[in-house]
Amino acid sequence: MPRAATRAAPGKAKGGILSWRPRWIADIITELRKVVWPSRQDTVHLTVVVLIVATIIGLALGGLDLGFAWLAEHILLR
């Protein structure tokens, strides 16, 4: 039998539970199984840190905006 006749069709994986999916989906699933996910405590802690930093930066930018608006109003209207 010619060698080409024994090969699997291009784009089709040989056997396995993921054989019906495209190869890149199987690769994604394989990589996600390797991920070390953070604990719930780490997730909560980092979420709190992000919220605090975002609030501080938001307040700082809001303060700068108010300051520049006040300054522009007093310079342009006088």
Describe the structure.
By secondary structure, this protein is an all-alpha fold. It is 68% helix and 0% strand. It has three helices and no strands. It has helices at 3-6, 23-34, 40-76. The mean pLDDT is 84.
Report the average pLDDT across residues. Answer: 84
Instruction: Detail the poorly predicted runs.
Output: none
Strand content: under 5%
- Tell me about the largest β-sheet: none
Distance between the termini: 95 Å
Q: Quickly count the helices.
A: 3
The string of secondary-structure elements, in order, is HHH
Rounded radius of gyration (Å): 29 Å
What structural category do the secondary elements indicate?
mainly alpha
Number of DSSP strand runs = 0
Task: Describe the SSE topology.
Blueprint: H1 3-6, H2 23-34, H3 40-76
At a glance:
The chain has helices at 3-6, 23-34, 40-76. By secondary structure, the protein is mainly α.
